[in-house]
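Q: Got a minute? One more chain.
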Amino acid sequence: QVQVEESGGGSVQAGGFLKLSCVVSPYISWGCVGWFRQAPGKEREGVIALRNDGSVSYSDSAKDRFTVARDNAKNTLYLEMYRLKPEDTAMYYCAADPRAVRYCYWWQTDFAYWGQGTQVSVSS
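A: Always. Here it is, folded:
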């Protein structure tokens, strides 16, 4: 049974930094793992996707401000968010999927395994 659990959300002021963590068990080395978010009243959207070959697919909102990394020894995926903006306020989700890396892009949301999310709130 695959389990996904996010942590690290919180409240920060605009311009601040947050680091989210996501533990995927029994292992993290899926073909595609990613971060997603859903703001109130909006659809869930992809933020960033990390392929098993190490390459990354960034959304425009993530480019230049967010980074993603994976620690296979800890089965953990990280999302570092710099220069946060109020429009980054959302519930952030982590997900994993066995799809081939050539099908792993930030805009895809049909992942197989999802966590419950962690809230990020950015005040102006």
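A: The chain has a mean pLDDT of 95.
Q: Perfect, thanks.
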